[in-house]
Specification:
alpha+beta; FAD/NAD(P)-binding domain; D-Amino Acid Oxidase, Chain A, domain 2; 2 domains; nine-stranded mixed β-sheet; 12 helices; globular; binds flavin-adenine dinucleotide
Length: 415
Amino acid sequence: MSRSGNVGHYDIVIIGSGMVGATLACALAETSLSVAIVDALAQPPSWPEDAPVDLRVSAITPAAERVFRRLGAWPGMAQRGVSPFREMFVWDALGGGDIHFDSADHAAPYLGHIIENRVVQAALVDCLLAAGQVELISPVCVQALTFNDDSRARITLDDGVVLHGRLVVAADGGRSRIRQLTGIGVRGWSYGQRAIVAVVETSLSHQETAWQCFHPQGPLAFLPLRDGRCSIVWTTTPEEAERLLNMEAELFCHYLAEAAEGRLGEIVAVGERASFPLQLQQASHYVEEGLALIGDAAHTIHPLAGQGANLGIIDAAVLAEVIISACADGCDWASREQLRRYERWRQGDVLRMMAMMEGFKRLFADVPAPIAWLRSAGLDFGNRCQPVKRALVAHQLGQSTDLPPLAVRAADLMI
Ligand SMILES: Cc1cc2nc3c(=O)[nH]c(=O)nc-3n(C[C@H](O)[C@H](O)[C@H](O)COP(=O)(O)OP(=O)(O)OC[C@H]3O[C@@H](n4cnc5c(N)ncnc54)[C@H](O)[C@@H]3O)c2cc1C
């Protein structure tokens, strides 16, 4: 790394230190490569000790947890607060079918953890600062990006600083500026839905269970928090979301309890409410010479299975693995040829997940009564059929996919 005045030279410049970009930076911190990471927001994120639980939380899978543990970031998350969920209960509001998953049936202590996004990000940035190998540049936005004839990138920041890098990694989210500046197109569509998020208090215990009810307008999820409350993600039409966001808290609680069919009793209190538009989006390609897209910059999916951040964290672990092994083999790790290994490794998994989410969304849409009946029968069958349940839980636990070394179970590493 070399930085003099307004110009810096690095091997790798990562744009975006959200959960995904910060994971990649941590994974590269121990290499001999010089790395800079840039974010528009001040880093590390800080918030007062008595701040309420953030509205943005993620269900983090055991595979992503293993990545965080191996990078040394998990203790920082655990100390700030993580909420395990041991069971999952999913039901169909129209047909009445349901399916129940219990970690104990699969010899696992839990199915995952609910963690505030800012907690994940802060713990990763702490690790970066402690390692002292990665330069963290914030708060500043990328303004321009060009590639020289020798394929080195020239990144101009809005404070006038210019960074040069052999590889630029776009980890700057669904509306990626880097993707726009490099002219990489996206395929996809808006779901025509919004997700309302809030933290609520319920009269019945959540029992460390993630609850999800499918309505024709979209799914409603209650994610258990360690203080006994739940973080909700309520997907519905934009018009209905607008109405629910603007109504009195008491009335909102009433409608929410009704939508949850009373499974968690009354909704006693609700905090601040916000909503996000939902879209399915996939970049036409994830890599070019000297450029890679990871996380939401490469793909965004429906939050119904809580997989967007998890996919991005595995992207980061795979890209780090590809770069590190190309370095070890003496190859040009920033060449398109080497980066294609990352693209090939990840695109299949992402497309499978997108297809699954799309299938779920359509299956639970407003369908004729016979299909709703079949759907519920299917859920009930799945609930009784152990092989189906085992396959679904194995996926949730990260036992069944083609994982990079940072994410595989210790037992699988030894094989
Ligand atoms: C309602 C909802 C619920 C969800 N629940 C889950 C869940 O339970 N589990 C799960 O796995 N996923 C979930 N997701 C998806 C998850 O939130 C995203 O996939 C994840 O946040 C993507 O992380 P990222 O780091 O790729 O992007 P982001 O989190 O968007 O981070 C991008 C970073 O880049 C920075 N940046 C942007 N532009 C610039 C620029 N020009 N210059 C410099 N910096 C820039 C930003 O400041 C930010 O820090 C959910 C999504 C929604 C909407």
